[in-house]
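Page 47, continued from p. 46.
Same chain as before, 100 aa.
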Amino acid sequence: MNFKIEETDDRYVVTLEGEMDTAAVRDIKGQIETLYKGDKDVVIDCSSLTYISSSGLRILLNILKAANHNGKSVTLCGVNDDVRNVFVISGFVNLFKLES
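Result:
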């Protein structure tokens, strides 16, 4: 999995590429901690994300909780049908703002 965070004055833009499974989450754990500060809005580009496991969902939920705690938002964009189905089945579709 490829994972990239770009920081601007008012938000973090996260790009996810490949499969966000348990192994990938372990590999990117240190980079993700920046997003747990919750001090900026977060936009997560999922257009190249092909799979997300429960570990990946947990990471996104933790990012969302940190952002919401500080009055910030998390937006997922470019979510494909397969990943969207995981969000629907897990109920996460109701938690996140999804954009095309």
